[in-house]
Amino acid sequence: xxxxxxxxxxxxxxxxxxxxxxxxxxxxxxxxxxxxxxxxxxxxxxxxxxxxxxxxxxxxxxxxxxxxxxxxxxxxxxxxxxxxxxxxxxxxxxxxxxxxxxxxxxxxxxxxxxxxxx
Length: 118
Prior knowledge:
By secondary structure, this protein is mainly alpha-helical. It has a single domain, classed as Globin-like (Orthogonal Bundle). 79% of the residues lie in helices and 0% in strands. Helix 1 packs antiparallel against helix 2, helix 2 (33-54) runs antiparallel to helix 3 (58-74) and helix 2 crosses helix 5. The chain is globular and about 35 Å long.
């Protein structure tokens, strides 16, 4: 199974773990509707990450993060919250898959550093 395939298979479980981790650490307020929206956004981030991995193009994910950052800012979600979500995605991938997810973790890290998300 390829990295995009196992991420696609586990996408919902990964997203749930990301949101739960963020909520447990109280890094963002995820009460009520905010939790459901964060879960939905996280699943979209993972879908785009999987697509970038399938075509082996980290810039595709970097561009997506730039675009979605603007979209989420218009919804009142700060760049810091987007960064926290992306960092938590990388942490969950590292914990769940270790070295098997190195490319995915690299794509996420690159999207944060190249877009200078604070």
